Amino acid sequence: MRRLLVATLATALTLAATGAAAHAHRRAAPAPGAAGAGDTYYPDYGNGGYDVAHYDIRLRYTPATDRLTGTTTILATATQDLSRLNLDFLLDVSSVQVNNRPAGFAREGAHELVVTPARSITAGAAITIVVQYSGVPSSKAVDGFTAWERTADGALAVGEPEIAWWWYPSNDHPSDKATFDVSVSVPDGVEAISNGVQPRPPVRETLGYTRWSWRSLKPQATYLTFLTVGQYDVTTDTAADGTTVYNAYSQLLPADLRDAAQASVERTAEIVDWGSTVFGPYPFEARGGVVLPPGELGFALENQTRPIYSAGFFRRGSNPAVIVHENAHQWFGDSVSVRSWQHTWLNEGFASYAEWLWSEKTDEGTAQEIFDYLYATSPDDAPIWTTAPADPGVAQLFGDAVYDRGAMTLHQLRTAVGDEDFFEIVRTWTAQHRYGDATTEQFTALAEQISGKDLHALFQAWLYTPAKPVLAGAPASSA
Ligand code: ARG
Ligand code: ZN
């Protein structure tokens, strides 16, 4: 889902540039949709020329063979006259239909599926794309990397930024979010868990398979759409605001890990309630978490409505900080997504700063103390200082500058404008860009607008300069 303004403007500019503006009725010939969404770091991720509203992903998966078969139906709107369009996908496609007619399809580059409809598509027209496919996802690699993981009792589709290619065709970029139906048939006795709510309970099918259905009611980025298949113990509840709570714990967790994980994840509803008071109303229809079998993944990810946690996060006992981090992402990253991957500090800086705010609230150290500690202990030549959070580059996209210095930037902002304006900025940000996407420049402009202060020097030093910022005067109080 994307506002159509950009396409309209682009069309107007094209007409003006070709001197065709005078001939109001003349149309440009249908052209191929772009092979990328315009990302500054990943130019071939996502695609151009259309805007997806909904994905219906209907699959069957067999853990023993890692075989995935299925059909994804994409409901989209053309944003230009299209002769063809691209999807991002890796598995083996057996047929593609566009608007009920067989379409041509061909693989191009590492992960592009080029679809040529029987008839060209007019700007503004509805497009229904049906892709039927099969494959063994773990056998597909791009640049030697496979994001899909097989586990001891199933599989895992979780990753950032790359994961969708291994299990469903999409416009794989956070600037084109859509609602999702995910329905997966798996052998009886294993769970298939995804985002959102269950529109219907699991249904027994023939041949010893059970179909699990999941639905995301709010726009969701492709990388935040996840699937885990395996044996899980589930706890469910309804939160005070009526949203569904659904938590899942791998049955492969040893008892001590399982207890620590549960003592953390079961606090999700409480932590989200706290987040609602700090960041603005919780944007989604469900909350909860999934804890993976030991040894899987090695990170946590803020899958919309249902973050996923590597078991390792609970090896040293309960860990509310990681629950705070992933759930803060529901506002920062999931509801307000990055327009381009370059702006990831808007996700990670806020999620990290949420941990500082939680620490402050639970008397485990103030945000100022955490800031001072990081400032004093990080060597001048460490990546946290030599990388600019607003332009970290792909290699440092998930580095300390994006996480810790991102949080430090927010703390500097809070110190400069005071708590009242700071939290006003935060809540205005989540309200203005709810279910959409945004850039660093939009954030700094909003901060200046609400505070009425010139914050150029602050943001220049903290976000854009690959060197340790000099602190002006004595540290201000954090209160
Ligand atoms: N967004 C995730 C988090 O901070 C991190 C994902 C890291 N990805 C990775 N490939 N290491 O919670
Ligand atoms: Zn994060």
Automatic annotation (TrEMBL):
Keyword tags: Hydrolase, Metal-binding, Metalloprotease, Protease, Signal, Zinc
Signal peptide: 1-24
Highest taxon in the source lineage: Bacteria
BP GO terms, sorted: proteolysis
Segments forming domain Peptidase M1 membrane alanine aminopeptidase: 318-462
GO molecular function: alanyl aminopeptidase activity; metallopeptidase activity; zinc ion binding
Catalysis performed (reactions): Release of an N-terminal amino acid, Xaa-|-Yaa- from a peptide, amide or arylamide. Xaa is preferably Ala, but may be most amino acids including Pro (slow action). When a terminal hydrophobic residue is followed by a prolyl residue, the two may be released as an intact Xaa-Pro dipeptide
Cofactor(s) recorded in Swiss-Prot or TrEMBL: Zn(2+)
EC identifiers of the protein: 3.4.11.2
Pfam family, one: Peptidase_M1
Residue ranges of domain Aminopeptidase N-like N-terminal in the record: 54-224
Family: Belongs to the peptidase M1 family.
Identification of the protein by name: Aminopeptidase N
Species in which this protein is naturally found: Actinoplanes teichomyceticus
Lineage: Bacteria, Bacillati, Actinomycetota, Actinomycetes, Micromonosporales
